[in-house]
Write a structure and sequence with these properties.
four-stranded mixed β-sheet, lyase, EC 4.2.1.19, alpha+beta, IGPD_sf
Length: 190
């Protein structure tokens, strides 16, 4: 089983993540309802077991909680993947959500990078600032060592657009961590 447990405690947040790439229960609590919904959708669509608890300075805004969650979840993925041998490495997936369409393509390469294209007409969805979608993805990509390209191709409802992003990320990661023989690299290591 590919599992990991990561924690991060600062003056702004206190976050614990337990991750199982092979599946399991999903329990998410961040204090930000829409973000909980997105992380749950990500885990369910990726087929991951995820127990995530975050407490943050939400009296300021959601920024620290969302970004730090990306950091901790990214570190958990890096730990669960180990040396990354025996995985398919690449994944790509489109998700339609009503009028919205999002696409994610990624490489579990050990070389972190984010390319994000998306603009949201609505500034907020519940207590979640729409602009935090990119901040979460950046923190996740950098700390997991994943090259991540995500685009909201079109849409009008920020809820649908952001949900399509999180679901497409889950599906693309599920493809990338699928078991295979050897290391998918001409170098022999990732």
């Amino acid at each position: 089983m590919c599992t990991a447990k990561q924690t991060r405690k600062t003056k702004e947040t206190n976050i614990t993540v337990e991750l199982c790439l092979d599946g399991g229960s999903v329990e998410v609590s961040t204090g930000i309802g829409f973000f909980d919904h997105m992380l749950t959708a990500f885990a369910v669509h990726g087929g991951f077991g995820l127990k995530l608890h975050a407490e943050g300075d939400l009296f300021v805004d959601c920024h620290h909680t969302v970004e730090d969650t990306g950091i901790v979840l990214g570190k958990a993925f890096a730990e669960a993947l180990g040396d990354k041998s025996g995985i398919a490495r690449y994944g790509s997936f489109y998700i339609p959500m009503d009028e919205a369409l999002a696409f994610t393509s990624l490489d579990v390469s050990g070389r972190p990078y984010l390319v994000f294209h998306g603009e949201f007409e609505q500034e907020r969805v519940g207590d979640f600032d729409s602009c935090m979608t990119e901040e979460f993805l950046r923190a996740f990509a950098v700390n997991s060592g994943i090259t991540l390209h995500t685009s909201v191709l079109y849409g009008a409802n920020a809820h649908h657009e952001i949900e399509a992003v999180f679901k497409s990320l889950g599906h693309a990661l599920q493809q990338a961590v699928t078991k295979r023989d050897g290391t998918l690299s001409t170098k022999g290591v990732l």
